[in-house]
Design brief:
- By secondary structure, the chain is mainly β.
- The chain has strands spanning 2-7, 10-13, 18-26, 28-39, 46-52, 57-59, 67-72, 77-82, 91-101, 107-110, 114-119.
- A hairpin with a 4-residue loop joins strand 7 (67-72) and strand 8 (77-82).
Length: 120
Amino acid sequence: QVQVVESGGGLVQSGGSLRLSCVASGSILSINAMGWYRRAPGSQRELVATITNGGRTNYADSVKGRFTISRDSAKNTVYLQMNSLKPEDSAVYYCKGRITQWTLPVDDYWGKGTQVTVSS
């Protein structure tokens, strides 16, 4: 069994910062990649940023230069530092881990999400 849990969301003013954290736990053999996605009301879920186990990162154009994804492999944790936040960044942010369990092949595991609200 694998659990993915996000934390760090909240309400912030436009131009402010937040740091999201995501921890994967359970019967984990390896984590290939972890990433952040978001879904705003009335919109589809979209990629925000991903990071591989080798440290390669990928960002949505809308957050480049403002958001930074990082990971602590020893803790099975990924972070999303969000600076210069805009009202359009308001969404539920989800963490996804591409994880191999000890007895199962690689699969995607999602957290339940954390709300980020940016006021203008």
